[in-house]
Structure formats: structure tokens, C-alpha cells
Amino acid sequence: MIGIGKFIQLSAVMTSVVCTSCGTARFYSQAVHGQAEILHRARPVALVEADPLTTDKLRRQLKLVTELKNFARKELRLPATRQFETYADLGRPYVVLNVYAAPEFSVEAKSWWYPFIGRAKYRGYFNEKLARQEAAKLKRDGLDVTVGGVRVYSTLGWFADPVLNTFIGENPAQLAETIFHELTHARVFISGDSDFNEAFATANAQEGVRRWLRANGDVAALARYELGLQRDEKLLALLTKTRSSLESLYNKKGG
Hints:
Helices cover 57% and strands 13% of the residues. The chain is globular. The chain is an alpha+beta fold and 255 residues long. It has two domains: 1-41; 44-254, no CATH class. The chain starts with a helix and ends with a helix. It has eight helices and eight strands; from the N terminus they run H-H-E-H-H-E-E-E-E-E-H-E-E-H-H-H. The longest helix has 36 residues, at 219-254. Strand 4 (112-114) and strand 5 form a beta hairpin.
């Protein structure tokens, strides 16, 4: 259940964001409902570990999260005292569905303004039906649209975020990167600059994983992790090159 303090805080956030625009009240209403669901389903990790119905795999992963939090707090100086102290099974593979949109013949994504975080290049929905409706509306407005599921979700330190079933099954290095990434957001977040926020959190998390694996003496896992990063860099380079080619093509078309 949601404690009274969290309920009051949640209500205050809802009031402030809904008042910013009556036309977006439905969006913010579903956001508050979705956050309330997460808080409602969250159970202390210790209780989940002690539950006889908890699988051995989940128990091992939760113990790993505790280890990662301790490392993040002591070695990376990240704020790991409140976050990931609970576990929530949402019964679905994604936390939210993000709607992304861009004008036709453009590689510059549409952005939306949000209270507290500024502008971001996505619209996140806990409710799939509403996400599809928003996507359909944007398409009718002439934009190119895509909808993608998001496994990891953070309130940037506003609430004590739980470990979620959507990412708890990751391998140790991936789980470490996820935990360090989200804790970095709680430490540093520049309102309105999502590109910097993601780049900084990713770089910090990756270095954190390297330090953690070295501290554990797991040379083989570190080698696999570095190889995976190299593959990701090649993919990113290919995507960046393709984006630049499309941008050049679109500019010629516009001219």
C-alpha cells in the first residue's frame, strides 16, 4: 500500500502538473495512476527473499542488486540509500510505452515539455491503449511515429524506486549497468537536456561496471562486457552515419 506521505507527495505532483495544461490532464492522470501502481505493488526486498514462493533465481538476482547498491554507494559515491530497496512485479514485460515522433523528412524528434524535467523527446504511457491513441493522433497530424517498450523506469530520486520484474532477469553485468545508470540519474540530472543526461549516465554506468568486475576479479566477464560495448559502438556508428545521410537527403529535398 502507498503510505500517507507518498500519497500526499504524489497528489501534490499530480496537482501541479495537471494545472499546467487542462488539455494534457488525461496524460498526467495516467502517469500518476501508473506511478501509484508501482508503489502499491512494491514489497521490501527482504520480504520477497523470505517468501517461500520466490524462485531461487529471483532471490539470487535480488541479492546481487543489494551487492551492486553497496558497491555504488561506497565506490562510486552514488545515492543508493533509498533506491531499489523494494521489488515490484508489474505482470508485464515493459514499465511504460514511449511514443516517439518526428516531422516527415526530418531526423529531429518532436519534444514535449514536462514539469521538473523540462523538455524530452518522448511521451511515456503506462497505459498501452492511451499510448496507441497518442501515436494515432500524431500520425493524423502528419508525423512519423513509433512506439517502443521501456523496461527500466526511474523517478530521478523523487520516489524510492523499486527493482522491477522488467529488468531483474538481466545478466550480472547488464544488471549492474542498469542499477548504476539509474542511480547516476538520481545524482545528476540537467532539466531539459535528455541527450546529456543519457550520455552521462551511460558513461558513468559503464565505468562503474568495469570497476565492479575488476573488484570481483572476473576477468572473463569483463572481457565479454567490453566486447559487447564494442559491438554497441559499431551499431551506434552505423546508425549515426545513416542519420547523417538521411539528414543530408532531407535537406536537399527541402531545398
